[in-house]
Q: What sequence folds into this?
């Protein structure tokens, strides 16, 4: 008994497109559009040119007689270190001094020297200063503030507090440092004060520019360039509010 032969479908019939319902068609198009937007946002997020300024908010006290490291880009090693030192003199006086020094020879601090070149000071920059290749940088340790008293710290007969950071609030250090052998610029914001022999400092924030050799503005925490309305590495929302389930339902 012969088996009935199957009827072969023609190639023309098999290639006929099937028309989806208009409701499902609209849902699929909306899903593709949303997925494409999210993909573009993720690609932009991975591009360093769109996340140029990295800002870190802080509220860290710089304690006396304890080194305080400053790591601008959060890599394994510190870029600069604060030193709040105190001591006494042989004639019964006392002193305090707050300094910052670079952890690498290529790192530098914006500053100047006194008229006689006796002290190397760190400038207390106001907001809005351009920190870049034309800045007044030089290597080595810099003094923010110093104080001294005669007659001892507890029974001070006279005291002296001096330096560019005397009672400074929301002033900025201009910083130059290296990442993978390339020059980057940054800033650190502090509040500094002194009372008799006590010198105190609070680090309130710091930032750096991820693009090598590109200047940064003191106080600026984000770059002008934004990615789809978001900034500082934030992934923007597509605004569609869609899910696969809703798309399958044609909503």
A:
């Amino acid at each position: 008994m012969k088996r009935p032969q199957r009827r072969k479908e023609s190639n023309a019939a098999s290639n006929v497109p099937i028309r989806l319902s208009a409701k499902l068609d609209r849902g699929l198009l909306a899903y593709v559009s949303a997925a494409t937007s999210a993909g573009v946002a993720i690609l932009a997020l991975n591009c360093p040119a769109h996340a140029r300024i990295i800002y870190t908010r802080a509220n860290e006290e710089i304690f006396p007689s304890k080194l305080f490291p400053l790591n601008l880009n959060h890599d394994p090693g510190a870029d600069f270190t604060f030193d709040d030192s105190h001591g006494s003199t042989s004639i019964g006086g006392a002193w305090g001094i707050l300094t910052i020094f670079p952890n690498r020879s290529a790192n530098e601090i914006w500053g100047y020297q006194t008229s006689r070149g006796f002290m190397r000071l760190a400038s207390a920059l106001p907001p809005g200063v351009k920190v870049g290749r034309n800045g007044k940088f030089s290597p080595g340790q810099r003094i923010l503030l110093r104080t001294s008293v005669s007659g001892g710290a507890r029974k001070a007969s006279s005291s002296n507090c001096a330096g560019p950071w005397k009672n400074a609030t929301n002033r900025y250090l201009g910083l130059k440092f290296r990442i993978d052998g390339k020059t980057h610029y940054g800033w650190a914001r502090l509040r500094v004060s002194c009372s008799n022999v006590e010198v105190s400092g609070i680090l309130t924030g710091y930032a750096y520019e991820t693009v090598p050799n590109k200047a940064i503005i003191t106080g600026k925490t984000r770059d002008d360039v934004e990615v789809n309305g978001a900034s500082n590495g934030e992934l923007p929302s597509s605004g569609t509010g869609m899910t696969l389930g809703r798309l399958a339902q044609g909503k």
Q: What stands out?
A: The longest strand covers residues 182-195.
